[in-house]
Amino acid sequence: MDRGNEEAGISDPHARILDGSRILHAFDASLFAPGPARDGRFAVKERWIECSNFPVGHPEQVVQFLHRQMNEEVDSLESSARNLSDFPDEDWEVRMYLARQCADEARHARMFRRLFEKRGGTVGQYPVLNFQYRIITQFDSLAARLAIQNRSFEAGGLDAITVSIEQARKDGDFELAELYEAQIADEITHVRFANEWIRKLGEKNPANLLRIAQAMEIASKAFAAVMGKEGTEGVNYPADKQGRLEAGFTREEVEITANPMSHT
Amino acid sequence: MGLSVSDRGKAVATFRYVHVELMETLAQWTPTSPEMEVKLMLGEHIWDAAQNADALGKRTRELRLPLQHGLKPVDAYVHLLQEIRQERDTSRRLSGFYDAILPGLDARYHAYLEQTDALLDAPTVRILEQVRNTSARMIRQSRELRAELPTLGKIDYGWIEAMKKRESRIPTLVS
User: Fold this and answer.
1) Integer Rg of chain A from CA
2) Is beta strand A128-129 parallel, antiparallel or unpaired with respect to A44-45?
3) Radius of gyration of chain B (CA)
4) What is the rounded distance in angstroms from the CA atom of residue A151 to the CA atom of residue B112?
5) C-alpha closest to that of A109 among B38, B16, B146
């Protein structure tokens, strides 16, 4: 047991003490795949609470947020690339969409980098998380990966980006609003092809639907482990109905997302 | 005498196989290469390789083969591609791909264009001209990146020369 832990009375040998008080217990390894490679500029963390999470209004908040988004785009690129190299026998049409997604995510990372560097930020200035890649790539089914990466993470992003566009406009930050508008157009395309292909893969092999359900449950637990209460409390965006319809969700699915209490 | 429809179909299907392999190689390297700037370039080039493969794969149908048909190249070339794909060092990955494989392919496309009838096989000519333009841009971007990141410029010249020689000694890709 770590001597500091022993002194603090923590029995978990893999636990760590954060900020002298909060106890961070080890991750359940079964919820995550190994992470992607990062160069020496980056400090990679496992949990949201270990990152720089500046409040709105803090002078570094926007730059830190753009830096985080850059790394998340790199995670998406890496996950899409893994889908190409891990599933060589999938239909050529879906592989073309995945290849295009790689280029889009790479471009998004460059967009975020350009903006935060313009505003005084540097690559590696803040810690990063690679939870998306580590959650997505643990599954050996393309349908499950598309359901988590494109249909969950990216679809959730549509809602967040729509709110952020409005906020950036209100703040007079038109440069940022323009970036988000370009990003959301691409993300809609990614969610749309995933919706289309999840349906096709489900029809081709109904076992894929079961794989998706199982993967979603594990992904949900993993996401909660990364974010903790601190990273999710009070974070709730209204559904971008128009964006979700364009992205191939049915009206019924959009309504369920828009009114989370309606199906309880 | 020039190439028959069957010859053209086999050549195009082989080129298509190679571009799918190139796409998968870049995809495999993206999460495992540490340097962020390299990942971003590979991400863009995955799409370039996919578009090349797609255009060639549409042409196979026009040459009386199935749509998106791929033909495995000769063993020596398959082994060379596999060996480069298995490289773990970023500098070697980039030099193997952008200094040996892509220029070697360009020479092969040039040879094909010299050999084929530009009128009878005009659609293939257009596709290969486009592929060559794309490859030239990819090579240029890789050189710019390596100039920007000095650690990637530490090239093992003996190794890269050996790769280039191996590539050039394979007389044809079509098996």
Assistant:
1) 19
2) parallel
3) 16
4) 44
5) B38
Cβ-proximal residues to A118 (8 Å cutoff; 6+ apart), any chain: none
From the list B24, B33, B47, the residue facing A103 with the nearest CB is B47
- Parts of chain B with a pLDDT under 70: 1
Say if the Cβ atoms of B47 and A102 lie within 8 Å.
Answer: yes
According to the model, what pLDDT value does residue A261 have? 44
Please list, in sequence order, all residues whose beta carbon lies within 8 angstroms of the beta carbon of residue B65, skipping any fewer than 6 positions away. Answer: B9, B13
Let me know if B151 is exposed, middle or buried by CB neighbors in 10 A (0-12, 13-18, 19+): exposed
For A215-246, how does the pLDDT look when each residue is reduced to its tens digit (9 = 90+)? 999 999 999 999 988 887 766 788 889 999 99
The 10s digit of each residue's pLDDT in A164-223 is 999 999 999 999 999 999 999 999 999 999 999 999 999 999 999 999 999 999 999 999
Q: What is the least distance, in Å, from the CA of B54 to any CA of chain A?
A: 8
The pLDDT-based confidence of A24 (bands split at 50, 70, 90) is low
Are A84 and B24 an interchain contact pair (Cβ–Cβ within 8 Å)? yes
List the structure tokens of B156: 């093992």
A40 vs B contacts (CB less than 8 Å): 34
Query: What integer pLDDT is reported at residue B91 of this predicted model?
Result: 95
Question: Which one of A36, A42, A84 has the shortest CB-CB distance to B27?
Answer: A84
CA dihedral B20, B26, B30, B32 (to 10 degrees): 110
Q: Give me the residues of A, 14-53, that contact B with CB < 8 A.
A: 36-42
CB count in 10 Å sphere of residue A227: 17
Q: What residues contact A87, with CB distance under 8 A and at least 6 apart?
A: A95, A142
Q: To which residue do tokens 């094909």 refer?
A: B112
Enter the tokens of residue A96. Answer: 């073309």
The secondary structure of A203-255 as a DSSP string is HH-THHHHHHHHHHHHHHHHHHHHHHHHHHTT------HHHHHHTT--HHHHH
Do the chains contact at A36 and B31, CB–CB below 8 Å?
yes
B35 vs A contacts (CB less than 8 Å): 39
**Chosen from B20, B24, B36 to mutate, greatest number of chain A CBs within 10 A:** B36
